[in-house]
Design brief:
The protein is built from 8 helices and 8 strands. The chain is α+β, with helices and mostly antiparallel strands. Helix 1 packs across helix 3. The termini are far apart.
Length: 319
């Protein structure tokens, strides 16, 4: 057969020499080169393997061994496993490279935004430097803001005795209590403007005037896992953010709160528009830019000035 003859032509030594000692590395390289040439001449790996198996069948007793087929399959499976490992390694390397690229792009975008915000802030401060009265009020505002803290992930604060989160409609408190505490040992008095929380026979954990009024009938509390007292306070005014739960406690910077976008879709159109306006005004104030109301007043003044060019507006100010 032509298949057998092609393999036989490339045999470098007669059968009696095959039993000699293992070939040196140079001889191995020569054998590989011969096999590579045969592979190329056969036009593909499958015809090459077919020829090799045919030679092994005719020139050896390999297939007299009942386990020969399973051994050949095992070698093929090992090669396939190696290929899969190499492909997996290549995919992992590509994924890591893409993640690094995305991270670098995100950091670059944040840096650009931070530089733009800093530039806007610098320009705003320069404009306000001309008026000493405005400067003093600005300093007071910055001083008040410095007292406010960065909100936690729930737009509230984590304090020593309790932690709290909020959305526009409600406030949630989590108060640690001794493990195994039962509801009958809890003191929780929720009034319109006052909250008292503690355990019977012990000084109260929370006792003070609420930051804003609540709807008492819509407020609840419960024991969670026997370790936490969970309190839900429904705000009376559900269109404003609380700076704190109890007056006098550390305050959160409400300009940094981030409403859950998923909640906006649940609101009616009018309420959603109001919330989006509040979010826009907070971002504008944070960057030292005019709010939507200030922009509207400025636009109205510009239109009025255009309609009355005969009037002198050089000293006009928007109150």
């Amino acid at each position: 057969m032509a298949i057998i003859s092609d393999i036989q032509e490339e045999e470098a030594s007669p059968p009696q020499q095959a039993a000699a000692a293992a070939p040196a590395p140079a001889a191995v390289d020569v054998d590989l080169e011969v096999l590579e040439k045969v592979l190329e001449r056969k036009g593909g790996p499958l015809p090459f393997l077919h020829a090799a198996i045919d030679v092994a069948h005719r020139r050896s007793d390999l297939f007299r061994d009942p386990s020969a087929v399973s051994k050949i399959n095992a070698m093929a499976s090992a090669c396939r496993a190696q290929v899969e490992a190499e492909e997996r390694k290549a995919r992992d390397a590509k994924r890591k490279a893409e993640e690094l690229d995305k991270k670098a792009a995100a950091e670059k975008e944040r840096a650009v935004k931070a530089a733009a915000a800093e530039k806007v802030r610098a320009v705003t401060e320069e404009k306000e430097a001309g008026s000493s009265g405005e400067k003093d009020s600005s300093m007071e505002a910055e001083k008040e803001e410095s007292k406010a803290k960065q909100p936690n992930a729930g737009n509230g604060l984590d304090l020593e005795k309790y932690s709290w989160t909020q959305q526009l409609p409600e406030v949630n408190l989590s108060v640690p209590v001794p493990e195994g505490t039962k509801s009958r040992f809890v003191v929780c008095e929720i009034k319109k403007d006052h909250l008292k929380v503690g355990l019977k026979g012990q000084p109260p954990i929370i006792d003070g005037e609420l930051h804003k009024p609540v709807k008492v009938d819509d407020c609840f509390w419960s024991i969670e896992d026997g370790k936490y007292l969970s309190i839900l306070l429904t705000k009376h005014n559900q269109m404003e953010w609380w700076k704190s739960v109890i007056k006098g406690d550390p305050e959160v910077d409400t300009q940094r709160v981030e409403p859950e976008s998923s909640k906006l879709s649940d609101l009616d159109p009018e309420t959603r528009q109001t919330v989006e306006k509040m979010m826009f005004d907070q971002r504008q104030k944070q960057m030292g830019l005019p709010t939507s109301d200030e922009m509207q007043k400025d636009e109205m003044l510009k239109k009025f000035m255009a309609q009355h060019p005969e009037m002198d507006f050089s000293r006009a100010k928007i109150a």
